[in-house]
Amino acid sequence: MRHGTTAWNEDGRWQGLTDNPLGPQGEAQARALREKLAGQTFDAVWSSDLQRAVQTAELALPGQPLRLDPRLREYHFGDFEGFTVPQMQGHAGFVHWQADPWPHPAPGGESLRGVARRMRAWADELPDGRVIAFSHSVAIRTLMVDLFATPLETQENYPIPYRERLKNGQLVTLRREKGEWTREAVGDS
């Protein structure tokens, strides 16, 4: 589950590890998820330790024990934190980073490969059972690229090379059977 909307999401700013809270729209998205998940049970509820993910989890599944894991955090945008796309494009390190962000870290941040490694380590450690995790857009999509060997594609006016985008408050459903992962739904909100 991608966390609900924050003020920076509304402004088009990349927040990465900046620990912003949910805004009113994000709180409403989390409450809507509560209605959707009513009556469902989970063997574990995980969340990034950043407050926008934690707040989404707490509003969506009140009273559920929550396991926090920093490996579920968003991509560390480094110098780009708080920037809009045009501001990123004006940064001296943007061209080198965008040429291949999988192995190259954002200036002062991390590489997409680094995100994939930590997200995959978390996923590989999950015991069998039904789990829900509250995380972030780039982190979730990076995990999917790693799990399913999805090709990277340069996007016009968008610095992350992933075809799929996730809106705030959207759910991705994955299944693991005998160590094999499949996608059941992407962007189901």
From TrEMBL:
Organism domain of life: Bacteria
CDD domains: HP_PGM_like (cd07067)
Pfam families in the cross-refs: His_Phos_1 (PF00300)
Region (Disordered): 1-25
Active-site residue numbers: 3, 74
InterPro entries attached to this UniProt entry: His_Pase_superF_clade-1, His_PPase_superfam, PGM_Phosphatase
Gene Ontology CC annotation, any one: cytoplasm
Binding-site residues for substrate, renumbered to this chain: 2-9, 52
Any one Gene Ontology molecular-function term assigned to this protein's record: phosphatase activity
Annotated protein name in UniProt: Histidine phosphatase family protein
Organism lineage string: Bacteria, Thermotogati, Deinococcota, Deinococci, Deinococcales
